[in-house]
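C-alpha cells incoming
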C-alpha cells in the first residue's frame, strides 16, 4: 500500500439525473472519478468512499436508507474499501476518517466528488488543516447553480471559483489525465 488515499466524496444517486438534487456535469465527473478509482486500486492506494445522510424525516435528499443516499454504481465500493458515513459537510466531523487515514499511514489525499462549493471544499480544507497534502482532481468534481442576493451563479462559475480558491492555498489542482500521469508507478 502507498501513503496516498483516494477519497470519493458523496457520489450518491440523488446527485445524478432523476435524483432529488441533480448536479451539473455529474456524469462526466463520475466517469473521471471512476478512472481515478480504477487507477487507485491498481496502484495499491487506499480508497475511501464518503457517503452523506441527512438526519431526520425531512431530509431534502440523501435520506437515510433511500436509494438516493446509495453510492452511485459508477464508483461503487469493493469489499474491503472503507465507507465513511457522515451527517455534516466536513467529512472529518464526527467520523472515523482521520483514524482510517492515520492507521494506514496516509500523508497524501486525492479528492474527487461533490459538491465543489460544499463537501469537496470542506474536506479539502480540513485535510490540509490536519496536515495531509491534498490534491483535488477538478474535473472529477461537480456542483450546481447557486443564487445569492437575486443573482444566479452558473455551476461552471461556482466550480471555477471554488477550485481557484482551493488551488490558491490549499491543494494541488489537476485534471484526471494530469493526475493519472503524475500518480502512475515509476517503471522498474
Amino acid at each position: 500500500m502507498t501513503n496516498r488515499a483516494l477519497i470519493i466524496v458523496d457520489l450518491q444517486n440523488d446527485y445524478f439525473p432523476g435524483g432529488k438534487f441533480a448536479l451539473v456535469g455529474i456524469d462526466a465527473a463520475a466517469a473521471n472519478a471512476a478512472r481515478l478509482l480504477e487507477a487507485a486500486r491498481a496502484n495499491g492506494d487506499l480508497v475511501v468512499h464518503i457517503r452523506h445522510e441527512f438526519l431526520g424525516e425531512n431530509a431534502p435528499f440523501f435520506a437515510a436508507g433511500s436509494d438516493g443516499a446509495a453510492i452511485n454504481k459508477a464508483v461503487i465500493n469493493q469489499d474491503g474499501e472503507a465507507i465513511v458515513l457522515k451527517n455534516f459537510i466536513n467529512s472529518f466531523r464526527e467520523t472515523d476518517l482521520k483514524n482510517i487515514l492515520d492507521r494506514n499511514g496516509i500523508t497524501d489525499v486525492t479528492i474527487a466528488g461533490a459538491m465543489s462549493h460544499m463537501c469537496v471544499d470542506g474536506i479539502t480544507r480540513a485535510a490540509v488543516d490536519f496536515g495531509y497534502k491534498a490534491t483535488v482532481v477538478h474535473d472529477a468534481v461537480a456542483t450546481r447553480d447557486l443564487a445569492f442576493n437575486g443573482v444566479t451563479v452558473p455551476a461552471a462559475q461556482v466550480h471555477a471559483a471554488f477550485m481557484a480558491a482551493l488551488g490558491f492555498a490549499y491543494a494541488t489542482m489537476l485534471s484526471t489525465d494530469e493526475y493519472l500521469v503524475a500518480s502512475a508507478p515509476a517503471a522498474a
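note: The beta strands are 4-9, 46-52, 82-86, 108-114, 133-142, 146-148, 151-153, 171-174.
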